[in-house]
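Researcher: I've been going back and forth with a colleague about how HPr family phosphocarrier protein might be arranged in three dimensions. Neither of us has a model we trust, so I'd like an independent prediction. The organism is Acinetobacter proteolyticus, in case that matters for your notes. Sequence below.
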Amino acid sequence: MIDTTIDVINKLGLHARASGKLIEVTTKFRASIQIGKGDKLVDAKNIMSLLMLGAGKGTTLRLVIEGADEDKALEEIQTLFAAKFYEAE
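Model: Here is an independent structure prediction for HPr family phosphocarrier protein. You can compare it with whatever you and your colleague have in mind.
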């Protein structure tokens, strides 16, 4: 099990388009992927749950991943966040 944090660094935060891109990544994996603030974790494969987080720029999110492909899932999620969801700034 991986339990780590990740920072939202893109200008608009985890808005609809960014959440959609995150869903594209998370749904490729069999691992359970949860994301949230502190103890309030939501399913990172559910767009409505992601949007309800209200994670703006500067938010630190907790990421909990558990499953056979957890390492690859973490790597791809970190890449997506680091690339600011491939949005023009």
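Researcher: What would you highlight for our discussion?
Model: I'd start with this: Helices lie at 16-26, 47-53, 70-82. After that, consider the following. The longest helix spans residues 70-82.
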